[in-house]
Each structure stands twice: as structure tokens, then as C-alpha cells.
Amino acid sequence: MPPAYLHHFFPVHGTAAFPPTDRIRPRGTFAVQVRLLGEHPWRRALDREERLERAIQARAPLDRRRPDVVVSVLVDEERSYVGISRPALNLSPWIGGAWPFPADRERINRAELKLLEALETFRIRLQPGWNALDLGSGTGGWARILLQSGLSVTAVDPRPLELEHPRLLHHALPAEGCLREVEGPFDLITNDMSARPQDSAPLMVQYAAHLRPGGHAVMTVKLGALDKPRVLDHTLRILRSAYRIPRIRQLYYNRSDLTVWLRKSGQ
User: Fold this and answer.
1) For residue 200, what pLDDT is reported?
2) DSSP string across 181-211
3) Which member of 10, 73, 152, 167 has the greatest number of CB atoms within 10 A?
4) In this predicted model, what pLDDT tens digit does every residue of 93-116 receive, in sequence order?
5) CB-count burial class (<10 Å; 0-12, 13-18, 19+) for 48
6) Domains 14-97 and 110-263 agree in fold
7) pLDDT tens digit string along 13-47?
8) Which fold has domain 110-263?
9) For the whole model, what pTM was predicted?
10) Where are the domains of the chain?
């Protein structure tokens, strides 16, 4: 399983006091990512990225969203380390692990970005006609994404939803009080509840009975300031009693939380 917290690494092809832009010749479209360590004449990473882009564009086309290669530069107080690699070989297909904001969507909030990034990271392809259960719906951000993808959604949250749709059913109850109210089976369960992992993980185990064999679940594990290794280990042991765990990831839009991809065994 890939590491949960590491977002980017790259091969070092050369070192210099400053990046040798005249020798950087990408094959195909490119993007640049710069990281700074300590004090250095290169003060702001973004300014340096733009300077490098302008210098390299004379030899290759720029594409910040889906580049063929990434020019990675790590600058410390003495020198710069430069490497060129394909994004998928850097642990993430996105520059520096930063998922690109979907340009075709408007009025999107961070909660929605988290789900979109999780679906893309875990390569979960939502299918029109799927039946989804959204635990801890809040104002309806995740439910909105699922509805836009053609799913029918059962939302569970005691608060009012800022959302109405003919394929949306809302149970105004806490998740722990709704186990007998929801009607599955579901193809997907999502959980972005603001709850301690030791509370939300047992709930996910109970709701596994409503997930079809082979179904997906996406869950946010809100670690906060807790003893992260101990709490995460305990949480995963609980979840493994009902699910397989193909991947765990700290998403770019997830701050200190982790997102867990779960699968129910069977076909």
C-alpha cells in the first residue's frame, strides 16, 4: 500500500547553485514544482516556478493540469536539486500531490473537493443508477456530487440539507439512530462525519450490512490532535472486521485528516 502522508518524491538528475534552466529539456508537455527549505535567495516558491516555466517554455509546451512530465526542484540554503519525471511515478499523478481544481465546476466548497479528490485518487468510477448512502451529510456537499453523477442518494444527518432533488432521500437523524431506517443495498457508502474515529469506525462496521458485496465506502478519519499512530491503528483494526482496505490517503484538501477507501468482500 502506498504511504498515506507522503505526497511527492522525484529522482535527482542534477544539482546546482540555481536550477540550470538551459539544460532542462522536457519531452512533451511539462509543469514545474518548487519546494524551498531554509533561507535562500529564492524566497517565494511560486515566483520561482513562474520564472522556471518561462525559461523552459522556449523548448516545451506548458500544461499545469495534466503534464507529461514534472520538473521538480528542491532548494535548500546551498543548492538546488533538480529532477524530471512522469507525474504517476512521483506517488501522485498531480504536481506535488496537489489535486487540480476541476475547472468545469462552479461554487464548489472544500467538502466537495475532498470527495472529488478521493474518487479520483482511489479511481472509483461512479455509475449512474448506483444507490449511495451518505452519512453525516452536513449541508449536502457530498450528496450534491453524487447526485450530479447520476446516483440516488440517501442522506443521513439531523441538520437540514441545503439541497432538494427527486433522487435524494433525507433522514433527519444521527447516523447511530438510522441503522433500521435506511433501505439498501447500497453500492457506495460515504462518511464525512465530524466524529471521533473510535465512534465512527464501529458505525461503519454496522452499516456494512447495508453495502452490497463488492461495494465501495469512502470514510474520513478525523484524527485532529489525537495520538495519530495509536488511534489510526485501532480504527483500522475495527474497520477490517467488515471491510478490505485497499488504500489510505491524506488528501490535499483534507488537512490533517485521512481518507480511507473500503471495499466489502464478495462480488
Assistant:
1) 94
2) T----EEEEEE--SS-HHHHHHHHHHHGGGE
3) 73
4) 666 666 666 655 555 677 888 899
5) buried
6) no
7) 778 776 666 667 677 788 888 777 766 555 565 56
8) Rossmann fold (3.40.50)
9) 0.78
10) 14-97, 110-263
